[in-house]
Amino acid sequence: MNKKVFILILNLLFCCGYTIAQEAQKSELQQRAEADDAKKNVASARFQFIRAFEDYANKGQMRQSIECAARAAALYYKENYYKEAFDLLRRADQTIIAQEKGTSRRSALHYLTSKERMQMYMKLRKSASAKDQIDIMENHAKNSGDENLKNDLLYNKAIYYYTFGMNAQGNAVFKEMANKLTAQKEYGKVDEVYKTLIANGRKSGSANLVAQSYSSYMAWKDSVSALKTADEIGALKKQIADNEATIADKDSSLSTRQAIIIGLCILAAALAAALILGAVVLLRYILLTRKLKKNLKLSNESNALKAQFISNISAQLEPTLKKLDGRQPEVQAMLDFSRHIQELSSLENEETSSNELEETQVAPFCENLMDQIRDKVKSNVTLTVNAPKMSVKLNKEYVSHILQHLLDNAAEYTPEGGHIRLEFKKRGAHTHQFIVTDNGQGIPEEKREDMFKPFLEIKDLTKGDGLGLPICKQMALKMKGDLDIDPEFTKGTRFVLDLHA
Q1: Across 313-410, where does the E strand assignment appear?
Q2: How buried is residue 136: exposed, middle or buried, by Cβ count under 10 Å (0-12/13-18/19+)?
Q3: Which of 65, 243, 358, 490 is 20 to 30 A (C-alpha) from 410?
Q4: CA distances from 490 to 36, 473, 487, 496 (A)
Q5: What pLDDT shows up at residue 74?
């Protein structure tokens, strides 16, 4: 018994020492980049990863170099800088060609850059381009001869198919990967892959991916339980046979043999009891999970009914309110509140995204929006428009509503002698931004997270109902874009409207 404990302690010390040694192998630049990334300092982390990529390349440490380049590219497109991300990956490929001579190692490194491109195209919802990258990854995985890359390829194929609604192909690929690892008795790896896929689905907001992954995971858990039991029984039988052979070889006494057999029987009974207990726990987990899914479904349906109920009440109140004196601020505030509730409920309950795009000249569009607040600003406030002479396809109704609301807010909160700026920036082939900036008092950091959430506090409706920004946020999401506050801008307030053509 003491010997086994001693061996276990040695193994733990070895594993800890190996982990510390691996950490020590990271350069100072990479460690600094990872620390910034953990603190959500995206720009700084990205800069440090690029420096680490160049530093590793100069030292000939190509694997670490390309991994840092891939992480920097991921931080670029996290903020929708797709052009910069593609350029960086192109540099990484050129570095691989220039410095890596081994064919298999070169393919393994190219696999990493192709994988990052595939993930970008998936985020951009470009199915065909993502599929091209998967085909390239397949060639690199084959040429590398690395079994881990082949397993990773199957995993990414499954994610691709589930993301774009090709459930049958996704199920087939994932089944191939699960069967492969299961045949190798790598049950822990299969379990981890399933959990990772479910987590990725939740993170990306893909209900289809979560549902398919969870269904496959539960089916696999049921099937693998029998395999594990058979393996454990087989291992137990082998252990019994080995012990009996040892007893026979040593020609031990009958009493010693009986004692060992009794001990093994006790062990078998304990193992059987543990398996039964495990089966009970698993069954309870399955039942609890199904109950939670049912409750979640009921909760979502209840929320939808609540939203519809609130909208109906608002619609029923509106005719009565219109009969009152509309010149009274309180009556007008109630009418505006009723209209905003109906508008927000309509956006939240709308199942499809808005794709009513029309070709729009950016410069006159922005100038016209700015002209509408000239009579609303305080004295000596400078109004600036920075928009190129080009055209883009926009949902003009939604974009006008959002920008006009942001400009009206800026006009209200910008002091005398201040400035308000409306900008348009092209961020990629199909990505652009509208940016509204003012040098007013700004929004406290602790309130920024709740700015786009409705009904969080009781307000005097004559001073605003707080639904303007939530409505704008929902409109941005319906256009497959987003509206947010720039956290790095501290000399006032800067709103950024991201759009994808």
Answers
A1: 358-361, 382-386, 391-394
A2: middle
A3: 358
A4: 20, 21, 7, 14
A5: 93
Q: Based on the number of CB atoms within 10 Å of its own CB, is 429 exposed (0-12), middle (13-18) or buried (19 or more)?
A: exposed
CB atoms within 10 A of CB 291: 10
Tens of pLDDT, residue by residue over 143-181, are 998 888 888 888 888 888 888 888 888 778 877 877 777
Find where tokens 């348009």 sit: 424
pLDDT for 325: 56
Give yes or no for residue 71 having a pLDDT over 90: yes
Contact 33, 73 (CB under 8 A): no
Higher pLDDT, residue 465 or 311: 465
Determine contact, residues 134/157, Cβ cutoff 8 Å. yes
In SS3 terms, 437-482 reads as EECCCCCCHHHHCCCCCCCCCCCCHHHCCCCHHHHHHHHHHHCCCE
- Among all chains, which residue has been given the structure tokens 């029923």? 316
Structure tokens at 500: 């994808």
pLDDT computed for residue 322 by the predictor = 59
Residue 273 one-letter amino acid: A
What pTM does this model have? 0.41
At 197, list the tokens.
């896929």
- Give the DSSP per-residue string, 415-435: PTT-EEEEEEEEEETTEEEEE
- Average pLDDT, whole number, for the chain? 80
Closest CA to 414 of 448, 438, 444, 437: 438
Residues 414, 439 contacting (CB under 8 angstroms):
yes
Token pair for 417: 């002698």
* CB proximity list for 96: less than 8 A, separation 6 or greater: 62, 66, 106, 109, 110, 113
| pLDDT exceeds 50 at position 267 | yes
Rounded CA-CA distance 221/223 in Å is: 6
Tokens of 382: 């400078």
Location of structure tokens 């639904």:
467
In a 3-state reduction of DSSP, which class is residue 303?
Answer: helix
Angle between helix 147-163 and helix 167-183 axes, rounded to 10 deg = 150
Q: Is 205 helix (H, G, I), strand (E, B) or coil?
A: coil
pLDDT in tens, 93-136: 999 999 888 889 999 999 999 999 999 999 999 999 999 999 99
Distances (CA, A) of 403 to 370, 407, 437, 438, 484: 9, 6, 11, 13, 12
Interhelix angle 147-163/103-123, nearest 10 degrees: 20
Alpha-carbon span 124 to 114, nearest angstrom = 15
One-letter-per-residue 3-state SS of 209-262: HHHHHHHHHHHHHHHHHHHHHHHHHHHHHHHHHHHHHHHHHHCCCHHHHHHHHH
The residue written with tokens 């087939």 in the block is: 172
Give the lowest-confidence range in 213-227, 271-285, 352-366, 378-392. 213-227
